[in-house]
Amino acid sequence: MPPITLTTDFHHGSTYVAAMKAVILTINPAATIVDVTHDVPPQDVRRGARVLDEVTALFPADTIHVAVIDPGVGTDRGIVYVRIGRQQYVCPDNGLLALMARRTPPSQIIRLTEPGYWLQPVSATFHGRDIMAPVAARLSLGLEPSLLGETQAGLLMLDWPEPTQSPGRIEGRIEEIDSFGNLISNISELLLAEVPHDHRTTVETCGRKVQGIVRTYGERSPGELVALVGSSGWLELAVVNGNAADDLAAMVGDAVTVTW
Amino acid sequence: MPPITLTTDFHHGSTYVAAMKAVILTINPAATIVDVTHDVPPQDVRRGARVLDEVTALFPADTIHVAVIDPGVGTDRGIVYVRIGRQQYVCPDNGLLALMARRTPPSQIIRLTEPGYWLQPVSATFHGRDIMAPVAARLSLGLEPSLLGETQAGLLMLDWPEPTQSPGRIEGRIEEIDSFGNLISNISELLLAEVPHDHRTTVETCGRKVQGIVRTYGERSPGELVALVGSSGWLELAVVNGNAADDLAAMVGDAVTVTW
Amino acid sequence: MPPITLTTDFHHGSTYVAAMKAVILTINPAATIVDVTHDVPPQDVRRGARVLDEVTALFPADTIHVAVIDPGVGTDRGIVYVRIGRQQYVCPDNGLLALMARRTPPSQIIRLTEPGYWLQPVSATFHGRDIMAPVAARLSLGLEPSLLGETQAGLLMLDWPEPTQSPGRIEGRIEEIDSFGNLISNISELLLAEVPHDHRTTVETCGRKVQGIVRTYGERSPGELVALVGSSGWLELAVVNGNAADDLAAMVGDAVTVTW
Asked: What's the pLDDT at A211?
């Protein structure tokens, strides 16, 4: 039986999360439920898309990922079942899957239109509890996705700023700051494949420069700023045993430049 | 096997929560444990009562809800097993069940007096770990509740401020602020059944007025203040894609008035 | 099948936690995973050691405790499998087990050197996901620990400040502040066995004195400062229904003195 994961902007400790789990366990008492995170900033669909992109591919095949960052709840935005690669998703069609779908086109998209699989009555403001949770629980019990509604051709897509490349230079930006204060850029290790990792290369952000790209934090002394490729494959800047975001007053969107 | 839920004021990340789960899993390795929330403000029994009232009825029949907001730990306040409707509760008898019991009288109340079902030795300051967790674990394995102690006639009750009604007017108050900053009042949808939801009705709080009660956030523009009935059946005020509590400097206890 | 627990400094809501759970469930879909805490302060190995010491012994026999507070990730610090008493641990060999191992010498220490049990490729910065999670999942399925690598003689140990004793006097320090603001010292109940608990004894910290050691918070009035032995067996100072850390501006490391 595939696990169900939950990704929301409800905030840790919110009883809205417990409400969704209650609905899932009522339908499937044996469900395995995993919290991905509930700390996506409120209504931040782009951040939700990055979370799903970063984590969900690691889960077992056929895992059902429910994502509720849903500023359009109760309007005519659709709710979709989507299969991308070996993973399954249930979420509003508002761009949450845009980052993943750009890389791997979905093999199945169903717009949820069959109310027989939902909690009744459906509220106007909490479709995570009333539509997505019961649908995920039924999928985990083996419900055939095509019964959930009508096939849909594509998903709502969003644009992300892409790094620009020129000879000897890549310009990107800080895309995320993790809980250690590490500054994670949108420059992937693929873009860095031809770039020397030694002192010939300079990484710059927020007016601070680093020579070379190290392999891990421990290669430099505590307090030193380093550039490295992080565990998800993105170039990041970090302060060894410290907090780069605090030290550099860095924010998401700040420029990151690699020159060599 | 019914799941066990945990509701406490230990704060997320507290190792006290892990201690309770350790005790439960030692007695019942197959237990399904669900966190409702650990972020009830310290010693805030009323807030705990609201959490239980809002969420627990959604769980599968016979779920065992353990609630540890327990400022009287180690004094002569009792600990009780209570059945209300289809749900079971294990908690201090300090008002945590008052909101639910007022609506649905308990069908069984047992005061926990049989130490044979507890962890030994029982500490003076952590009955959640030493009494409530082991009792819940044993209940999940099928222990007959009447073995836990003596039947008790009633529960300690608390009063809640109720909305007042007069022709063309309802006066209530903000009872809770959720993680989105939505202001959730104590005015239920039942009270609003005869109230027009269009522009004839005015909802006022913190010096701000809204005309009409909408169905969902998305019916108005981002940044606009709206009144609507939220997913738990209470009148709430919200800023579309924003934070009403911040915008209005609103606090629990502030008046909410509906006139028409 | 023994449960797996997770203790990290990733911060609640971090997707790094979800990544570890994804890896575990991919290898063992039936794994029971319990979060101990993810709110150990970044790189604070000593605090991690205290968490493990405080909570893990309560878990069922053979539970596998994974601890990832790992400032040395990617350097030559080892990663170890350790059995202490009835519990099993998988963590960096950086002092995380020092507090427990001082009391109960490990009965088995294996340095993880067999990459066949790891996720491939192993990143340089996230061994929690790539080495510790898959090893824990395989142990939960019954893998023989000795296959993981070579036996190692001892663990990296750290020193902790110990209370000093003289006739009629014990001097210790605040070792931890819990989520209620209770000040938990390093003075154990064993040290207090011969000390009178009545008014003859004075407990002092941060310039404030308390007469006597009470059994539980409820023996004094709200707002009053009390000294008592907490649920983990340490002398603590607490404000009844209040927050001692705020009231006394107390910090970890402040002196605690018992005189009689």
From this structure: 96
Phi-psi region of A130 (alpha: psi -120 to 50; beta: other; left: phi over 0): alpha
Over pLDDT 70: what percentage of chain B? 100
Name the strand (E) or helix (H) holding C249: none
Exposure string (b/e) for A182-208, b if CB count within 10 Å is 16 or more? Answer: bbbbbbeeebbeebeeeeebebbbbee
Asked if B153 and B93 touch (Cβ cutoff 8 Å), the reply is no
Number of C-beta neighbours around residue C213 at 10 A: 21
- CA atoms within a 13 Å half-sphere pointing along the CA-CB vector of C225: 19
Instruction: To the nearest 10°, report the CA torsion of A10, A14, A18, A23.
Output: -40
> Would you tell me how many other CB atoms lie within 10 Å of the CB of residue A62?
14
User: Rounded to an integer, what distance in angstroms lies between the CA atom of residue C90 and that of residue C66?
Assistant: 5
Residue C31 pLDDT greater than 90, yes or no: yes
Q: Which among B156, B133, B136, B7 is positioned nearest to B69, based on CA atoms?
A: B7
| Whole-number Å distance between alpha carbons of A166 and A163 | 10
Predicted pLDDT at B52: 97
> Predicted ipTM?
0.94
**Looking at this protein, which amino acid is placed at residue C85?**
G
More confident residue, A84 or C124: A84
Which of A6, A179, A220 has the highest number of chain C CBs within 10 A, making it the mutation to test binding with C? A179
Q: What is the CA radius of gyration of chain B?
A: 21
CB atoms within 10 A of CB A53: 18
Could you read off the pLDDT of B121-170 as tens digits, one per residue?
999 999 999 999 999 999 999 999 999 999 999 999 998 889 999 999 99
Q: Distance between CA B47 and CA B213 in Å, rounded?
A: 26
Using an 8 Å Cβ cutoff, are C192 and C228 in contact?
Answer: no
Taking an 8 Å cut-off on Cβ atoms, the answer to whether B23 and C58 are in contact is yes
**Which chains share 3+ C-beta pairs under 8 angstroms with A?**
B, C
Coil, strand, or helix at residue B15? Answer: helix
Please indicate if any CB of chain B lies within 8 Å of the CB of A124. yes
Nearest neighbour of C123 by CB, restricted to A36, A179, A231: A231
